[in-house]
Protein 1
Amino acid sequence: MIEFGAVYYDGRTSARTVVNVRGLAHSLHITGANVNIEVPLTGIRVDARVGDIQRTLDLPGGAQLKTDDHGALAALFPRANRFEAWVQMLERQWGYALAAVVLTAVFTWWCVVYGLPLAATAIAHTVPRGIEAKLGEQTLATIDKSLCDPTRLAAERIEAVRKRFDTLTAGLNDGFAYRLEFRSCKQIGPNAFALPGGAILVVDDLVKLAQNDQQIAAVLAHEIGHVHNQHGLRMALQGAGVAALIAALAGDAVTMTKVAVALPTMLLQSGYSRAFETEADTYAFQRMKAVGLSPEYFADIMVLLEKHREHAAGTKEQGKDATSAGAPGTLDYLSTHPATAERIQRARDYR
């Protein structure tokens, strides 16, 4: 028989009673002043041992026992004791501890680099189109508030670009409400952005830089590829982390729209990943071919954007004044779209 001393709390008052506890075959017999109860072992939960700190036994009905007789508890609850002994053994082994740190670091890296993108991709497909469109609207509102002014392009010029856009989006039937937005954004420079849900923002300076409407259509095809593959939503989910993923899975529209606050910054400063850009380029080439446009136009506009960037960088270095899109410090299209030479070659080689 195993006996040990403990302090008993009935779970209803703060009164403490010193008791004697006897371990029987399948129960504990607890006796003390005004206490005489028997509790089945299967109904008792014992907390884990931490050094020599007093331990708690949770009894049915909210009552508790507190004792520091670790030996008696080890004998009465051997299954829990084996687990605790294993944990304590690991805690004393520096090699195991170091391995655990390394494994934790590797797992964290995998989650950030691969796990979170995979989760974002899977969950993006479950987000209702209405919520995705709302995220795009909120993102556009943020851009309008802090970065852009209404377009200064002539109505005829806008209409010509819209016709190209309508040709590219005709018959897609992929669930997105595609629409084109024009803005004057001097701090951004020649650029275009695909927003979640179907809106595509074109900066005036991009239209002015292009030599023809086919080149503008090539950029639009690329941005349509971003919308079609939900790159904006997936990037927003990855950037916001696990909380946003869970909110998206639950269909929480309020939480999802809060992600829009950070999305413009991600689009402007970090841009899409190389994998996203390659995927959008491939979609653009396929779509251009489908409507009778050569991917060469994509290569041509990329060359113009590269020259623009080089000119802007040279102007900044020389300390000279520059006007409109060429102003030092502006964000051009290629600043958020890496590996320009490789992409130009892919467009020229595409068949």
Note: The mean pLDDT is 82.
Protein 2
Amino acid sequence: MKILLAVVLAAALAQHAGADPGPMLRVEFSNPSLTPSNWSLVLRSDGSAHFHAERGSVPVANTDRMEPAIVDRDVWLTADFTARVFETVRHHNLLRDGRCESHLKVAFQGWKKLSYSGPEGTGGCEFNYSKDKDIQGLGDALVGVASTIVEGARVELLWQYDPLGLDHALEFIQQGARDGRLQQVCAIRPLLEKLESDPAVMERVRRRAQQLLSEAGK
């Protein structure tokens, strides 16, 4: 009986290890004039994602804020947002034609490279600016998610080295969430929960964290 149970368990583990991870979208961004200059976000259809960013070569002296050298973490995005992302990709034939870039003379916003893989196939494209409003909107939304995660990493630095700067930093996140520059505040939910319950930080900081948490899933 024990041998049979072990065989069944081993088979189940092997099946799980080889299971199809499902649809996945990888986003790679690069702009050497920004901080961070490079980042990537791998998003799966269940809302789980992994983010990695590197500060780049912009001199620290040229910035007036604490900048994390590397940000590398798992995050969760809302079901509605995730569904819209994958619906956009499917609506555009999984990005198979590769024609996202407008080739218009517009300001450089940073290269966004999208790579999709899933049971339907694969596809991808790269663009600075797209004339297709859905693709451009998708790029802007994903940049907004990345900006939220990076701002969260900056808040962590302030919490450790300059707690008096937390109020201004959270105010910036609130404003960015309202005007759309920052999206998916749920990506920094664990950080906000810790701030909300930390009696060592200012009451106003805890209140801002609470307000952000109340809107994080919207």
Note: The first strand starts at residue 24 and ends at 30.
Protein 3
Amino acid sequence: MSNQPDSFLTIAHQVIEDEIQELRNLDAALDENFSTACRMILDCCGRVIFSGVGHSGHVAEKSAANLASLTRPSFFLHAGEAAHGDLGAVSGDDLVIFISNSGETEEILRLLPRMRSIGAKTIAIVGNLQSSMAQTCDLALSHGAREEAGPIKYAGSSTALNCMALCDALVMATSVAKGMTEEAYWHVHPGGAVGSRLGAKFNHSKS
């Protein structure tokens, strides 16, 4: 492969086009199970916990922060650390959303019987609805990605992006259903550029 700028651009366009196609696959894969997942989040009396390892763990951590910023109690549980004491943070009122491309992540599979004994509800976000995780959790959602982006089809890209997009959709759909508005968001996000823009918007509307 030549180290010329046009070669770089060729790969960049391939990656982006591949990821766009996989996002379209996710959009097509959404069904009534997505609505069921939203209802499970809305009906949860405890915290909504996101869990995973590796790339899926990074997606889970971001998604927990996103939901918490919209005033829904949420936190990230590292699936590997959970077996070493962090499982004590989970209660029977909680809902745990596990993220794994293969649906066979050992650290998560070891946790599922514990979650059942605690009484927490579970949702799996996976690439394979026939996987062990999908079959064991209370509900399973497919992230819809069929392969990774670019010329190397094993480097995490489309699968992580689709998982993040699916979690973003869950977070936004349930937050709007609970009555979250831009003005309400301003009250919990008064800082930074976002806080400044929202402050200008709503201070102006009240003047």
Note: The mean pLDDT is 94.
Protein 4
Amino acid sequence: MTNALEASFGLAVSAALMWGILSILLSPCHLSSIPLIVGFMSGRERISTLRAFVISTWFACGMLLTIAILGVVTAMAGKMLGDVGAAGNYLVSLVFFAVGLHLLGVFSIPWFAAGGTAKPRKGLGAAFILGLIFGVAVGPCTFAYMAPMLGVTFKLGADRPVYASILLLAFGVGHCSVIVLAGTSMGWVERYLKWDAKSMGTQVFRIVIGIAVILAGLYLVYTAK
């Protein structure tokens, strides 16, 4: 990967993009974002594919913003990039447990609904906040996968800052693409299968996703240091 990043422009950008995708697919803590955003997309009302894409993108942007802030703060504190300790994992796991129980129907979280037309910005704000919270837990994982990227971009930064920025942007796009694709596909699947809030398929799907989100929360507790 490092050799590819130091090769020609086209190969380097392609490698950065692919490494961003793999940083999600190869990381259990990042994979937990998929049931979370998919569960969020299975709101009370059917939504369009475009709105599903926008909401998923807001979630991913919220996650990346938190990761960026954590990187700066922890670096200034002289700690491992993104390492917020066990407290961060426990905080996010509580959110996962709450979301999972919401999807299972144990109780209702009013703002946790992507659908609805009366307040179209409601789902965007909730998705962004959820992404901000999730970014706390995945910070250390993200920076572990960013290590080869940062090594190359720091080397290039002094002489070729634009090139270094493009490589980091390609990594970020790849990193977000899996999450955005997962959330967007949920809107398409609901439309294709003609699911709505009362469909049996929707109810079963929410139970499965709810269990998956709770398991992801348990994983965060297990990996807390």
Note: Residues 30-223 form one domain.
